[in-house]
Specification:
single chain; mainly alpha; 8 helices; elongated
Amino acid sequence: ITEQVNIFDKESFEKEVEKVEGKAARADMIAHRTKKSIEEKYDEDPVFYQKFSKLLKKAIEDYRQHRIDEAEYYLTAQQIMDSVTNRKDDGTPSMLEGNDIAKAFYGLSELVTIKKNSSVENIRTINAEIGLKIDDIFKRNLVVDWQTKDDIQNNILNEIEDYLYDLKEGKKLNISFDDIDQILEKTLKVGKKRYH
């Protein structure tokens, strides 16, 4: 039994896909390997990977229900895989380009704040700034084995909480204390996965 090639090893994966006969079979291979990669990396950026997991699920279902043909299924699976491997998401502000960890924090912040702040003109920019700030807070507090040190984790969480509270008080962001707690919980989980 040979081990399956990971989609992030693009050259080897392309060669493996070329060996498969038929567009539908190739699309299935791409879709299922992409799904596996999403599951493996999900905790690193839940919002990003959930978006593409849903798109992939829809593409598979659309093909099975004959709403799209083999060619469209193949193209859709390929596009989703490319987005996942290249971490491309058209909705992400350009200020986050090249900073995948800040993008993850941006996604978590946006998930929590977007509903209450949909009328705020620059909400995406504010969430991008939140993502960058959280990334900066983590980087400034990192020490060896920080994941096992409660005092370091508490410093990180306190700094993030203070920052979010200042945004709330400054009326830049409509955010509740429950929202802040949600962001804190999720960012710590992502931080533990991303900052080894």
